[in-house]
Amino acid sequence: MYKALLMGLITLINISPVSAERLSSEPIKPIQAFIIKEPDKVELGKKLFFDPRLSRSGFISCNSCHNLSMGGSDNLPTSIGHNWQQGPINSPTVLNSSMNLAQFWDGRAANLQEQAAGPIANPMEMAFSHSLAIDVLRSIPQYVAEFNKIYGSSQITLDQVTNAIAAFEETLVTPNARFDLWLKGNDNALTETEIAGYQKFKEIGCVACHNGEAVGGSSFQRMGVIEPYQTENPAEGRIAVTGKDADRFSFKVPTLRNVELTYPYFHDGAYWKLEDAVDVMARLQLGQQLASQDIKNITAFLKTLTGDQPQFAIPQLPPSTANTPIPVPFEQ
Amino acid sequence: MYKALLMGLITLINISPVSAERLSSEPIKPIQAFIIKEPDKVELGKKLFFDPRLSRSGFISCNSCHNLSMGGSDNLPTSIGHNWQQGPINSPTVLNSSMNLAQFWDGRAANLQEQAAGPIANPMEMAFSHSLAIDVLRSIPQYVAEFNKIYGSSQITLDQVTNAIAAFEETLVTPNARFDLWLKGNDNALTETEIAGYQKFKEIGCVACHNGEAVGGSSFQRMGVIEPYQTENPAEGRIAVTGKDADRFSFKVPTLRNVELTYPYFHDGAYWKLEDAVDVMARLQLGQQLASQDIKNITAFLKTLTGDQPQFAIPQLPPSTANTPIPVPFEQ
User: Fold this and answer.
1) pLDDT tens digits for B185-194?
2) A308 interfaces chain B, CB cutoff of 8 Å
3) Label partner for B8 (CA 20 to 30 A): which of A289, B25, B130, B264?
4) Are residues A134 and A98 in the same domain?
5) Apex CA B79: angle with CA B103 and CA B69, to 5°?
6) For position A268, which CATH number holds?
7) Does residue A322 lie in a domain region?
8) Same domain flag for B159 and B183
């Protein structure tokens, strides 16, 4: 009883020797809470993230495919775009995406700001144009005032729009996952099954790619190293950016943070069950045929990577005016 | 100075004689803040309201067309449904909808609970079936636990689902509009223009239908009393429910609360500018050709009906499981 109390105190004041060792030696690092330094910009970015007027139809916002009620994803194999077009690839989670070495599965955007411009003008997604999106924002006095306050100009530019969206997205980190509490020395944060899963995860080599704060996102890797990945999805990955044949079927390693929430899995969204995704990865990437108990254990471990989800009040969007271009949900 | 202070105090302690008279004599009544008595049920209803897994595609939620970031509406002439189908009628705001005498434009649902079941199974909207929606919820342990806690049964029924959604929707009232502050005796809450607009609004007879707390929603009225309303929308209104020829083109009078946010206007969503809607209503319903200054004043008054918008943290939806039916965004 006294010992438990003492251990609790030690955990509380964060000086556990276990903690220090785990933090330095484990290949996965805990996520730090994000400290907002530019609250006005983050608030503006939040509004833009939720504003469907950045799409041609007036119906699709960033949040449609990166739904912050659903792990920052849409939980569909590939997304629904303008006019119900079927998207080419699985929508990656926006959660912790600031930790990625680049954005999109093929890494064609260097950072979140560059990424944010893409879907607005993509005819398969929001199907708008940057200049029309800017026209919409410029017609709304509350937006003009907010941009003016933050960027010191009553003009609104695409760079400002994507800068604000990126500033909001940077706040979308998910600290305090049970695994992180364990990393910080709280032995009770994980069950034996979960720890066994983590040991197996390290033992067979998953950590070669899934490591660091985001447990992924830090490299491009070929999908199907030992065995080819069978898919009807025509995406070829990184070669689209580099033009190098060696990069064919190479994709950004997805984060495993909140993986419990970001089904279905892989760039084609073909696998709905985390157990199946674990099995496929072990076989194709590592040449390991896992026993079903190991799959269960690894899956249990992966579910400990679910952290605190973003908590904020739903934004209230400033209304359109008589000068606001009217959305075009249906073509005539 | 002392007088201003005294008046301020009187306003504060709410005993202004002006206030008492206005509250009793004006045809519009202030909205009361909603006091939540069943917080667990409201939280569950909020999740369901935001959960796109109640649709066949896994993409459309109640919030898609009754967007709580946009005045509880979608700001489109008619809504986008499953497979991008064009809806038949303008999506009415969910804000203050508990005050309506019935739900839908034709009043075919007696109350919010009855309404909530409609879109889930409507092939033009969420295109699901009630039993499939229930199957989804039953497959998710966190939902089962919440229903069990609230309804005392681990079964989940459609009645429970719609009861919880309605309980959430009942909280979506918008008190503290500037007009309400004025009704309560705060003379400074409105400008002279706004008061002039309100006087004209009463003088020409708008209050015959737009009265009470919701400034509408309490009767069905023919659209086009003096002159017929020109529209390509085939909706015939209340006759669909009563079968009476006298009810042809009779629609529920919409609330004018937050009308600044709920464009475009009328059951066909044909008018984007509030000024135009005011002009059309005065001519068609009241035989009044308003001067442009009167239109401006009435519009200014109407914008004082925007109240506090719902403030709550975006809900976090419990994840699907291996047993959850997979959504069908695209037909094979």
Assistant:
1) 999 999 999 9
2) no
3) B25
4) yes
5) 80
6) 1.10.760.10
7) no
8) no
